[in-house]
Amino acid sequence: VDQPGGGPPSPSGPADVLGFDPADPGFLDDPYARYHALRERGPIFRTPAGLFVLTGHELCGAMLRDPRFGHGPNPVNRVNPGQPVESFLRMDPPDHTRLRGLVSRAFTPRMVERLRPRVEAVTAGLIAALPEEGDLVSGFAYPLPVRVICEMLGVPPEDHERFQGWSETAARSLDPMLTEDLIAESGRSGREFRDYFRDLLELRRRRPGDDLLSALVRVEELTEGELLATCVLLLVAGHETTVNLIANGVLALVRHDLLRHAAERPRPVVEEVLRYDPPVQLTGRVALRDAELGGTPVPAGTAVVALIGAANRDPAAFPDPDRFDLDRFDPHRPDPGRFDPGRFDPGRFDPGRFDVAREPGRHLAFGLGIHFCLGATLARMEGEIALAALAAAAPRMELLDPAPPYRPNLVLRGLAKLPVRLNR
Ligand code: HEM
Questions:
Q1: Exposed, middle or buried: residue 223 (CB in 10 Å: 0-12, 13-18, 19+)?
Q2: Rounded-to-integer distance, Cα 335 and Cα 242, Å
Q3: CA 374 to centroid of ligand 1, rounded, Å
Q4: 412 lines ligand 1 (CB under 6 A)
Q5: Are the beta carbons of 241 and 280 closer than 8 angstroms?
Q6: Sorting pLDDT into bands at 50, 70 and 90, what band is 5?
Q7: What global pTM score does this model have?
Q8: Whose CA is nearest to atom 4 of ligand 1?
């Protein structure tokens, strides 16, 4: 999250900056209780450090679609050409539009559908190799999206031990209020990651394959910095989130004794998991000019945090929001006047034109507006295949640890481990 006004990190504590402290005991086990407490302060509030936090579903959606909010010029990128370039995740139009446009063709529903047999085969192979008792994150939830995104990009999957650490650091560095140590580590790790891709791209230039990297090296209008930043973004975004969709999903389903449903109707199950325990908990923007949100003036340069985890539990958008309810997105039980997933076609969905005020029941797990997740169709397909296959193979699975540990990240929420007994 950008600091207010783009200045140096504020010296005040997390509660001053964010309105809550993610290091508080119990926060990672249930951030949603804290979000509900924040909601008492209204759908938008200003923290002592001066940034705005949005907990309301409608306001989060409206801000994400509002062109008055963006990332702002990044002096490091543009003034020092030798410095690493940010990925398009942190860019505004027209650069964002140009770079996203170059890779978006690889993520259309038709292209993603072509990957289905491979995703199914990788899933089946991983499930067959699972021990009766073991950690489902390292044995299944993590390797599945890693292999899929590696194959798409043309990254050798056996390199995963080399990039796992860099990728974890990249995921961690999305958090607001990094320590000096983490900033230094993130810089180091980012350089190594880019060096790795520079070599790999050279290889693909000489020996092209039927993969995205080979296609990207042929695009002449990309600078090297843009090319490397795009590769890192796709690899990291392609698995550091989906691992959490799968693991958060298994945890919620087993806890509620609902796992068997995933085998029969994976689509509404995945949607409810995305709403109930979203892998991306928040995202930030800066007011690019003077603006207002829900009647509150937001001066140019002010940072704004959209708390997706809170928006997805907003009772104004989702009745009984803390209930894990597999019927919520079931097309066979449409709730009149609310978002109807039966009529919802992700392939034709235009997040830039979507109006949250008219369709209040849509979760914000993939964001909204021009930065709407490029990999949403792929992530949904992976989540549906993974949860359905696991539920079919081990419907009586049990948790070995009733309160499994979380990774310390705030933005990318996910389990460090999920020890289970399969009872196959
Ligand atoms: C952007 C969530 C999987 C690629 C985003 C954003 C969210 C998100 C919330 C918007 C961030 C913002 O507005 O600041 C998720 C979740 C996933 C997932 C919850 C899994 C369940 C994937 C996958 C890919 C991917 C599999 C594949 C490469 C991207 C990219 C962006 C993005 C490239 C940047 C889009 C842009 O800036 O225009 N994702 N994502 N994501 N996601 Fe995903």
A1: exposed
A2: 28
A3: 6
A4: no
A5: yes
A6: very low
A7: 0.92
A8: 375
Long-range contacts, stretch 402-408, CB < 8 angstroms, 24+ apart: 403/29, 404/251, 406/28, 406/29, 408/28, 408/172
Six-digit token string for 40: 């008492």
- Containing structural domain, residue 358: 4-421
Which comes out higher in pLDDT, residue 181 or 330? Answer: 181
Give pLDDT tens digits for 44-89: 999 999 999 999 999 999 999 999 999 998 644 444 455 678 899 9
Residue 374: predicted pLDDT: 95
Is residue 329 within 8 Å of 340, Cβ to Cβ?
A: no
Can you give the pLDDT at residue 347? 57
Q: Can you tell me whether residue 419 is helix, strand or coil?
A: strand
Expressed in angstroms and rounded, the spacing between residue 372 Cα and the centre of ligand 1 is: 7
Could you report the per-residue pLDDT of 187-245, keeping only the tens digit for each? 999 999 999 999 999 999 999 999 999 999 998 888 999 999 999 999 999 999 999 99
Nearest Cα neighbor of 20 from 6, 43, 3, 37 is 37
**Tell me, what's the ipTM?**
0.99
Count of domains observed in the chain: 1
- What pLDDT was estimated at residue 177? 83
The answer, yes or no, to whether any atom of ligand 1 lies below 6 A from the CB of 88, is: yes
Distance of CA 37 to the CA centre of its chain: 24
pLDDT for position 332: 65
**Cα 91 to averaged position of ligand 1 atoms, centre (Å):** 14
* Dist. CA 400 → ligand 1 center (Å): 31
Q: Which residue's entry shows tokens 């000019």?
A: 289
Task: State the CATH number of the domain containing residue 68.
Answer: 1.10.630.10
If phi over 0 gives left and psi between -120 and 50 gives alpha, with beta otherwise, what is residue 340? beta
Index of the ligand 1 atom closest to the CA of residue 91? 37
